[in-house]
Amino acid sequence: MRSTDTAFVQWLRTTPNLWSADLFTVTLTAQVSNPSAPTGTVWRWTNTDRPISYGGDTWLATGPRVARTSWSAKAQLEVPQMEVTIDSAASELLGDVPVNAFVNNGGFDGARVRLERALMPSASTAAFGTILLFEGRVSTAQAGRARATLTVKGDLVLLDQQMPRNLYQANCLHTLYDSGCTLLRSRYSWSNSVAAGSIVGTIVPATPLASLAPDGAGAAVDPQAFVQGAISFTGGVNAGVVRAIKVVSGGNMGLAYPLPHAPAVGDPFTITYGCDHTAATCKARFNNLANLRAFPYIPAAETAA
């Protein structure tokens, strides 16, 4: 049963011909690197060729083209799901970065998506009313050169998790710099820029990693500590792009995934320490054993009995 106002229901009963449009409302909940699209940013798009207004809000027809698959809803504990596709040109931006870069940087992680159907007596820009069809959060997002695909799942997905919550394993269960880890990202981040010789898969830092200022705890920088860390470009043609650092060799950083554009000398970026989630690294690199959520002394299964 979908609830709506009485006047709208009566209008549906007495109107023989209807025009309809899908309305997509996307609210960002992830903390992304792009400051022009912070948490709480709301985008409203429609799949028609004209903007649709209702209740003081307007869903735009310009910008990315949005479509969806069919969605499911059942009266049982099964997670409803819908796929949303976003087609865009290189010149179309979310915040100030291209759509595909925004998606691959995790900009839609955990974002809420609301799908409504607008109904009107003729092809106009004002809806008479809307019906809520689906609402949920983005579970996975991936993007190619011109198309991004978001898998949106209903809120029942919150119940779809392993139990018990605390698993006994040798590696730490925290995500580095999250509230459980308690470490401040700013204490283990450094600003730098691109030097000559950099390519899409390898970055040569203008300031050698070993020459960077001590970290927030006063310890000297260890170049290998950036392995499994991140590099975030704050300017240039790759502005807003974030990549994981896979290897550090000879003072240069090899990226886990190549950049969309070749960096130019002087392009600024920020680099952050990584962590392999072991007790040894937690103690030696961060002195954070008090917040380690790991069980490194679990006996092997063969000797546990």
Automatic annotation (TrEMBL):
Domain Bacteriophage phiJL001 Gp84 C-terminal: start-end pairs: 225-300
Cited Pfam families: Phage_BR0599, Phage_phiJL001_Gp84_N
InterPro entries given in the database record: Phage_phiJL001_Gp84, Phage_phiJL001_Gp84_C
Domain of life from the UniProt record: Bacteria
Protein name: Bacteriophage phiJL001 Gp84 C-terminal domain-containing protein
Source organism: Nitrospirillum viridazoti CBAmc
Organism taxonomic ancestry: Bacteria, Pseudomonadati, Pseudomonadota, Alphaproteobacteria, Rhodospirillales
